[in-house]
Amino acid sequence: MPDISLTAQFIALVVLLVLSGAFSMSETVMMAANRYRLRSLAGQGNRGARLAIELLGKTDRLLGVVLLFNNLVNTAAATLVSVITLEIFGDERWVLGIATLLVTFAILVFSEITPKVIGATHADRLAPIFAFPLSALLRVFYFAIWFVNLFSRSLLWLLRLQPREDNHTALSVEELRAMVLESGQFIPHKHRSILVNLFDLESITVEDVMTPRGAIEAIDLSATEAELRRQIATSFHTRLAVHDGDSEQVIGVLHQRRLLNDTLEDGFSVERIRGLLAKPYYVPADTPLYSQIQFFQENQQRLAFVVDEYGEILGLITLEDIIEELIGKFTTSMPAAAGRLAWNEDGSVLVDGSANLRELNRRLDLALPTDGPKTLNGLILEHLQDIPETGVSMKIAEIPIEVVQTQDRRVRTARLFRPLGDGGGR
Fold first, then answer.
1. Listing from the earlier edge strand, what are the strands of the sheet with 410-417?
2. Taking the CB of residue 253, how many other CB atoms lie within 10 A of it?
3. Would you state the pLDDT for residue 350?
4. Which domains, from first to last, does the chain contain?
């Protein structure tokens, strides 16, 4: 290259370093790009995103074109540096050694590290742009890339490592959960909470969110007509479980709206209530919530009685219970009941023994164990292995608990204290 001026050679060297940086950046950009975001852009008609997805579906060819030209450019740059060094300093080995170190440093800083950091930072934005020149190079130099990959595939075959043409892999539930939790400002907090709850529907059973049997409001047809009138008139539920003398046996479900329409025309009577009863619907206690939603839809039901393996009623679950598990409390069976479950100024809270542990954990930011009993009463009885007396205190999962009132062999009311180091408490 004696006929080419040093200025032109230095310009050529700079161009080679820039090209090397561009190929290094393109490699990082394509590998670090969010494929799901690219698919979204492609669905919106972005041609660059569509080309990027096609390239990522053929990783061996994509890497082949990038690395082929990257190495060619780096080799050319190193050779050009040697030529420039010989022309300026002559055949001095120590000068060639220093020149080699300098060009290595230049390639490392200006053509490798810096471009790759920039590419990784703006991968999603740059991938559709780099897809155009890479696709063009792949088409023009397809044979050369195929020839290089022929040896690469042969080596992979010997190592029993066969690449897949399509690198798209399905995400697991935990990976989806992590994506939702890390979505930041892209998904509002309330929406993230709903999505995370949705992922839990397969692991949560109806027993986890049901109303315990002791808290089910029911009417007994063996009671007097005056008692029935009073109980129905003061009920805040639209559907009531119905017994007939035996509180362990449900004979039907009464829809109060139907009762109202019927009694306005023909008057109130026990026999009329019997005629309006709907057949009770039962579900096993270990039914996942997601399956239960489908069962409600298929059977056109909104309420079901939860039974154990012996057919004994454990509690009651409604469609509203499942919806509230997803989006949080939006309705209540008692006026002004919402919002009562909160820490007092002294770091304590008075809780009903029938309170659901999952609801306590959610509302009070606790970590009570939920893999055993589902209510606070059950948790206390399991922990003590006995029916406690009023005033008994204990600590479960680092949460001090005091039994305030017991009735009929169960804890009716308990006081919880905020754990130490959690902004208050004892």
1. 348-352, 410-417, 399-407, 393-396
2. 22
3. 92
4. 6-158 (no CATH), 204-327 (3.10.580.10), 348-417 (3.30.465.10)
